[in-house]
């Protein structure tokens, strides 16, 4: 393996693979001069997991061997990044040190179940579920099918998360499941956030839906402890500091998350722990040979694959300009899309920019939940993900 590459990409997730494919199609000279560093055996279509958890998609269809999604013409180092030195322009991965001219950081976001006392050891038993770990998503639907009475409690942390509205997707589809099966079950939603959704156009409808469906919901309530064997969840009121215990038959946890801890002493992170890049050009605020996109970046938008779809083509143009010794001139406006299933078969498609202004792609009113949007997410999105976005063709 070479010791030096024109471009090194850290992470072979949505952002890393799509960026590599796009760079190769824009500049053929980069063939065999791009290295992707990624330790996993599989690549995951994570937006499918809430659908698996509600029985609408098969788990196996949400992953492929990493070797099958690696672009032809890149080199793959199957190791975990251990250190980055942006001054020497080198990366330590496993026991190797590799050098770069340019670096794209696409390491994603880290899940922090350990921030909730008792959570990690409770997962996958006693009704404690999560849709954020591949091996546990089937347990969500298995558990739902066995709940007969009591509370289904859905949680969302105060921290930034990926798949921003996946908790609400589970909440609404499970509410419908419970009503269809005439179960004596209450749906309870506890969110650490201080708002239902940051864009008024969509939050109005979501709040109305929560009220109409009779869902017991409260904001600024952070899950701090899981007592799995007693089937109790403990929430901290972020306003008063009081603790509240809620009994559950089923608990669906979206864990707190944070930026890539492996970069902590690299000088690449901002004070909140995200890779510090310009919100428009995606070039690093200190090191002009470094770019970042996706969940690991400081870009102040929802952390979604749909945001990567908008960011990646702009980042690639800017990176090519930098490789040509020019200043990056292309600008990302923060556009992202959040699909929110309000029941099986209906979905709100929120699309907006950095200013939280709706930026919708269709002529329909996307704050109304529509059958068409649901079908798009369930049937079209996986195809577009594997065969367009990942291939860099957006
Ligand atoms: C439950 C759920 C529901 C979601 N729903 C939606 C949705 O409906 N719509 C939508 O658009 N998005 C959704 N998302 C979010 C979407 O999947 C992410 O925003 C997207 O994958 C971000 O791409 P990324 O490349 O930044 O991170 P990832 O795709 O997570 O990739 C990061 C990669 O970095 C690798 N990595 C981590 N640490 C290291 C290391 N030390 N060294 C080397 N490699 C490393 C990882 O193995 C991984 O392959 C959802 C996510 C989840 C989990």
UniProtKB/TrEMBL annotation:
Residues 5-124 form the FAD/NAD(P)-binding domain. Signal peptide: none annotated. SUPFAM superfamilies: FAD/NAD(P)-binding domain. One of its GO terms (biological process) is sulfide oxidation, using sulfide:quinone oxidoreductase. InterPro entries: FAD/NAD-bd_sf, FAD/NAD-binding_dom, Sulphide_quinone_reductase. Pfam families: Pyr_redox_2 (PF07992). It comes from the Bacteria. GO terms for molecular function: FAD binding; sulfide:quinone oxidoreductase activity. PANTHER family: SULFIDE:QUINONE OXIDOREDUCTASE, SULFIDE:QUINONE OXIDOREDUCTASE, MITOCHONDRIAL. This is NAD(P)/FAD-dependent oxidoreductase. It comes from Salinicoccus cyprini.
